[in-house]
Amino acid sequence: MRNILLLLCVTCVIISCCSSKNKEKKKEAYRINYANTITASELKEMLYIYASDAYEGRKTGEPGQKKAVEFIKSQYVANGIPSPIKEGDYFQEIPESFFKGDIKASENVLAYIKGSEKPEEIIVISAHLDHIGVSKVGEVNNGADDDGSGTVAILEIAEAFKTAAIKGHGPKRSILFLHVTGEEIGLYGSRYYTDVDPVFPLENTVANLNIDMIGRIDPKHEGNPNYLYLIGSDKLSRELHDISEDVNKRFTNFKFDYTYNSDRDPNRFYYRSDHYNFAKNNIPVIFYFNGTHADYHRPTDTPDKIEYELLAARAKLIFHTAWELANRQERIKLDKKKE
């Protein structure tokens, strides 16, 4: 009798373990399917519009930038992804007085998916929507990589999360899709969000994943394009860094290059994109970056130069990382504080 009971207990444990593993495999399969809704063809279609001459280089406050924010809004409306500001209002207005110099009023664009279990905790995915406008000789600086690539990547990531939510697999934590203005002239849009009008309290913001140029290959990696520079992942939370590494190994297998993450990096990229305004408020960040190239801040940064399959793969990596952060049981720990 004792042996029979022992056998039954062991059998129950095995069945339970198998059942748990099957559930995890099923969840992972769903997740991969949602990631696969991020496609090179859709990214290309959007970027050829967003980085076209019609948008006049998207200079902050100018007519081309206004077209850009309307385009971003239209994508969220089409996908049924709401604004956290109020119904139908996706623009966080930034007055002219906030900017230095001869800069007109501008706006950030915000959309979000509400968390199913921990809606008060927020994952922010950001990219800047502006660029440097038209040159003195009338050439449009299209900014396809900088940062059209980040902009359309967020739109595809948002659509993937929305698809998951429709299918009953929405994120446990809320996700804010934040398109910020004024990056090229001094990180104004992200600073307005963090310092003046954080729509969600900063103390409830778990992490910021910032995307600034992920559509190209820099000279260092021309022979091995399966790479991405990561900056900031271990600056405030070792746990965030470890999660990022684990997600990459499980789903995408990029070669992460941490060259620019060094405190001795002369380029100081850690301080030069919108994630920094979150990091200075002790919010863990990752900055995704493909490095600079000959077309950086030139009229030749055009959509035909973008590696769309690579852009899609990088966007999937960020989707998987955001998914992990949004659905894990505990929020990631802050183990270092910025002075």
TrEMBL record:
Superkingdom in the source lineage: Bacteria
Annotated Peptidase M28 domain residues: 108-320
UniProt-listed InterPro entries: EF_Hand_1_Ca_BS (IPR018247), M28_fam (IPR045175), Peptidase_M28 (IPR007484)
A single BP term in Gene Ontology: proteolysis
Gene Ontology MF: a single term: metalloexopeptidase activity
PROSITE patterns found in the cross-reference section: EF_HAND_1, PROKAR_LIPOPROTEIN
One Pfam family it belongs to: Peptidase_M28
Protein name: Peptidase M28-like protein
Species of provenance: Seonamhaeicola aphaedonensis
